[in-house]
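Model it.
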Amino acid sequence: MIVIICLIGLAVLAGLYAAPGRSPTAASSAVARSPDPGPLAVSSRGCLPGITDLRSGRSTLRIRNTGNSPEEVQILDDTHTYDYADLELVAPGTTRELIVVLPPGRFGASCEADDGTIGYSDPFQVTGPAVGGVHRWIPATLTDLGNAVTNYRTSVTAGLKQLASDTDALQAATDGQDRAMIKKRWLTAYLDYEQLGGVYDTFGDYADKINGLPSGLPRGVQDPAFTGFHKIEYLLWHNGSDDQIRAATRLLDRDVHGLVKAFPHQETAPNDVPLRTHEILENTMQLTLTGQDDLGSHSGLATTAANIDGTRMTLKALTPLLQQNDPALLASAEHSLDQLDAVVTSLHRRGGYPALRALSRTQQERLDGTLSGTLESLDPIPTELEVLLTQDNS
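Modeled.
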């Protein structure tokens, strides 16, 4: 399980972009800010009762959950078409800030509990001059995400077919003595799998069997539970015997074909595709660029390139939805991925990618900085496209 840790200082994208939960741009900073209305309550008894009219520009609303259920708060236009800010589940008894940049107009708030109950505030007016830094989007629905999941699973099915073919070729290579050929076919199959990073939860136990790391296992690299691509990687680059490599490769091939057979019957959660659009590259920063998932092949740059492709796969599935709901966010995400792709491609040399440790300090800093910027651009996607899944525990 990947623990999602925010590693990046939130920098505002150039110009007027202000994503949910992030500081708005300087474009609105010159506008008079609304007086602090004090904590606004949310509970089953009401949605922000007492909310007052605001000035256009940046407002900071302090949301206090006085009820017994987590609540999600959104600021909407008066037709409930566009969302201007979203504060994800506020726990009972807590107070959190909701920062929003609003133009002149009429607005309201919605408050959704984790059992799916939705309440609405009284409408309120925003007065004042036009402002920059406004960001709005159309909230996604379960139907929207269902279509995206269907599109994504079609791509994954094709990717799994290629993966099975390439693990077959890897296993066939172990019948010979050519370690260079085995390493080459290992990398091809491994990168196939890395491009499928958006469905590791869907894969269940197969994810660890195929791509698990030895960290956390009682015996580390010697633990019987350590299998899959990284087991083979360790053996190939640490003088494992032919028999060990052959056995590990045979097991990998069997697990991959097991996954291919199981996948049509596995379920992908609706929120997984937007979440992984950010998380795949976040995992790249946490594990790959730090060398934590390198068991000897020094293939971190090739893995990063595959993870970019994997992110593009999730974004492609979401493209119709983002074109409708937030085309500016889609354009920003595509542009940032292109920039990162160009940086990684520029590091490719004849014969492949160099090891990360062979990069100059300037190259490493450029790679890290570009990846950080890409993550910043992708960060709003999970929030904007997330739908609340009912969790009625009564």
